[in-house]
Structure formats: structure tokens, C-alpha cells
Amino acid sequence: MTIRGKAKAGIIGVGVIGAAMAKNLVEAGFDLVGHDIAPEAMAHLQKLGGRPMPSNAAVLAEAEVVITSMPSAKALLSVAEELARSPHPGRIVAETSTLTLADKQAAFDKLQTAGIAMLDCPLSGSANRAAIRDVLVYASGDRAAYDKCLPVFEGFSRAPFYVGAFGNGSKLKYIANHLVAIHTVAAGEAFALARKAGLDAADAYDAIIGGAGGSRAMEARKEMLVSNEYLPVRTASLDLFKKDLEVIGDFADGVECPVPMFTATLPLYKSAIAQGMGDQDMAAISALLQRMAGLDPK
User: Fold this and answer.
1) 110, 140, 166 - which closes a domain
2) CA 109/CA 105 separation, integer angstroms
3) Which of 10, 22, 139, 163 has the greatest CB tally within 10 Å of its CB?
4) Please, how many CA atoms are within 13 Å of residue 99, restricted to the half-sphere of its CB?
């Protein structure tokens, strides 16, 4: 498969991340087909230049490589069951969601019975970075399948990585998100401290970002941390990230590895959600910390 000549690709799940991948694949020259259960997502796909299909099975019939971007394990298993009922042996499903290894394996087993290969390919990067093709692909599974998918991965990501056996991609994603959880709290705490100390947030950002204290998490949340406004969501909402926090915690428990820094962030995320901030960007942790410091982030 090559990008030239309008090679075909498919996408199932055209939410925020799925739409970002779709946009980049169309811009890379792919003839993109896709499906989503939400009519507004289908309309958005068409607006981006993709071709909406009436079902997930129709996407598989059209495209050799199909990306899935699912909001839940239930959604993934439902898609896998539908695709397995309309098998097209030799097709490849590149699964990009952040879900448990058990859920990914269940989908893998279902598709394998129909001769459909599945790769575990979670993405590292936020929604706003996905829109500008600044995400990484942690691809794991059959190497030959990965090689066939490589032009597609290159079409929507900054860099794809082949990381070995099926499931290794998710393991790396959990570790990456473990760091995101910690770094987001650290950046939020730093800006709460800067404001409490009477510093200008924009000046503090400019002074810190290029030094030893700067981070990608801070860079991705610059506008929100400086303006102290956390809507619209630019990376991930607190409600959405809650799922990832649970998956990371279960993963660490499963391999019997203590993660005290990560564990220390959990009460802050839970408190923010309990206070009605779940629809805001996860960077809103800074607003929570400002209130704890006696400031009014409004």
C-alpha cells in the first residue's frame, strides 16, 4: 500500500481523535472510508473529505487497513463481533484506543477466528496534538501486518514505533499516560504556586518552558495554564481521563509495581471530578490547586 494513487484506508470511530486521524489521512492522499454510530460524526467525516459507509462491515469490505478508535471496551467488542460476521481474510484492524489488555485480547481472538489480523496500536498524544499529526503510534503484534500498515501510520502520526508482541503497545501507553497524569498535576501545581507568589502566568511560562522544568505536558496546555480557562477541552477532559487512570492503576497492580507518584495524583483528579469539573480539560487540576491555596481561579 502506498500513499500515492489514493490508496484506501478505513476508520471506525470518528470522535475527537478519530476525526483528527481522518483529517490527516485525507490530507496525506488516502481514499478514506469510515463509519460511526453518531450521525454528526458521519457528517464531519464527509466534511473532512472521507466517505461515510453504512456499517462497520462496509468499511472492512472497502479497506485493507482499518483503524478503530473506540470510547469503551463494549464498543470495541461490538465492532469486532460485527466484523467477524462479515469476514474478509487478510484485512488488518489497527486498534488505537486506550483499553485494558484483556479487552484488546478478547477483540483479537474474535477477529482472528475470521482471518482478520489485529494490531494493538494505542496513540501517545493529546487531541490537539493529533490534529496537527503530532502523535506517536505504539504498534504491537504481527510484524508483517505492521509493515502493511506503516504508510497509514505515517499518514496520521509524527512517528510510528513497532514495539513487539501484541499488547506491548498498550503497556507502553499505560506508562506514557502514567507520566502524563503526574506531569499534568506538576504543571498545574507550578502555575498555582506562581499565581500565589504574585507572578504573571505568561511570564512564568516563557521563563520555565525552555529550561530544566519545562515539559511536553506544560507545552500542550500552555494556553489553558496561562489564561486559567479550561474549556473548550484541548487535550482530554477529566471525565475521559478517569478511564485511563483506572486502567493504569489496574495495570500497575497486575505487575505488582508500586507507583507512589501516580497514586498521589489520584485524589486530586477524583476531587476535581467530584466538584463538577469533569467536563473541563484535565489541566483544570491547576484551578483546583489554586482553590486549595486560597485563590479564586475565576
Assistant:
1) 166
2) 6
3) 10
4) 22
